[in-house]
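Recap quiz, item 2
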Amino acid sequence: MKNKTQVQNKEIILSGQAVSPGIAIGKVYLFRTLKINIHELQAEVEDPKLEWGLFNKAVKKVVKQLDSAKAASQKQYGDEFSEIFESQKAFLDDITLLEEIQQEIELSASSAPFAVSKILSEKTNHFINMENTYFRERAYDIMDLKQKLLYSLLGIDFNYNLSGPSIVVADLLSPSDTVQFNRNFILGFLTDQGGKTSHAAIMARGLQIPAVVNGYTLSKLIAPESTIILDGFVGTIIINPSAETIDRYRALQEEHEHFNRELQKEVALPSVTKDGRQISLMANIEFAHEINDVKKNKAEGVGLFRTESVFIEKKELPTEEEQFEIYKQAAEQIAPYPLTIRTIDLGGDKFLENYSAEDEQNPFLGWRAIRFCLDEPDIFKEQLRAILRASMFGNIHILLPMISSVDEVTQTKEYLEEVRRELTKKGIAFKGVIPLGIMIETPAAAMLAGILADYVDFFSIGTNDLTQYVLAIDRTNDRVSKSYNTFNPAVLSFIAKTIEAGRLSGKPVTLCGEYATVSEAVPLLLGMGLRVFSMNPHLIAKVKKIIRIFDIKSCETLYEEVKEMHTAREIEQHCQRFFKSNVPDLKFLS
Ligand code: PEP
Ligand code: MG
């Protein structure tokens, strides 16, 4: 026993995945959900009608729970997370899903819990096998619904009462679990499962709560009430930390809090380089509700609204009216700044239910983005109509994804003309001038940028795809990810070519890929002549701080030096050295 206590109290250091930055030190609150195995459930019943009735009752109860979770969330956090609960409710409203469950109950005489477990597990597996992490992690939302329905059917309840400041440790946290805890008591989250884009992680980042995913089964091993430390910067988990370790992390925590307070001051400062050059910082969003963050972080508008979520969240095609409302509200809220709506970028790794590219050998080289839209004019024109109508309510720009030829732009313009004629005929108002831009994310577009400039009003460089297509490295394939590096001189030369084409033609150039937020890349991009960056709104303060440290002249010299270099490694290291020599306190910026 003595030995056991000693082992229990020994400091244990483990590493996990950091999903929300910050340091948390405190007592563990173990939030145990109950794993219900399908094999433990009664499979067959005599009265399927009764089961169908029970199922419908459970759905009603879960809808109520989601409504109260939404209300709890609104009370603590405002509207920030409301859409998450709405989208979970929409799932419970999905006719196809309900029919599948009804069939399972009625045709196979399955019990309601068995049918729920079977059908929702199949759905979870469908999502979990997707390449795209965003969709893979939506599987957690479905798992959560399955649990909620099963708890309701089996009469199980949970306790969200934290008695004091705690680090919540769980197998997996759902959005509704996350918001039921009292925000004032949550120090951090440690979960076995999840990832950077799971909703709990997104919420944690939004609320600036440190979070780590451990990737194994720590929630089963950690003793309740034990003390732990989470390092949400690098993913370190320390169980039973010594007094010395606690002191060290407390110091780091204070340093970080101080840094954050200082960083928040950047939000109010002008976005100018040390030598006074104006740099525009815009935001990337996937959901309209993120406009709140865009405004909080004082972005100069939305440089990229990825509209796929509007289509995929609904599970069926959204109507023109639904789209119009979303675009209109977002445009109104951000006006007079621009709302750059990217037309749907489906295909590749994001599919609509009935438009999957399962039979394609290379979906990233296949029926994706503008190619899909030009072949599906009904879907495309419906979106264009909604965008045009919404243009009356703000400063909307249209952005076309994955362009690789002039023809794609001219064909789109023809569709736009058709839509304009239809709206005019019906007497529906829209703005006469709506800037039309293209993503530069294929080598072809970058090579043709000088020519394409005659056809469009602006460029937006998508480095996530540009890197993939220039280097011929699937951006979702872990096996080859070590060579996926935007510092590769080949990729940089395509970026430079685009910026130059923009400069010569007088067309604005934005960069909206993740590269815009890589600290060491920011000075290089400034040196290349980039003046508009678009990014996750929470990273604006960081990038602004970096921009304010550097002057254009030294960034241009950096770029001149980089031009002479031959490898990604050499360039990246050179940029890191340059960054280090200008930024004395690197700890939280790099
Ligand atoms: C990009 O490719 O860099 C980009 C911003 O678009 P997405 O990540 O949506 O493909
Ligand atoms: Mg892209």
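The longest strand covers residues 23-31.
The radius of gyration is 25 Å.
End of item.
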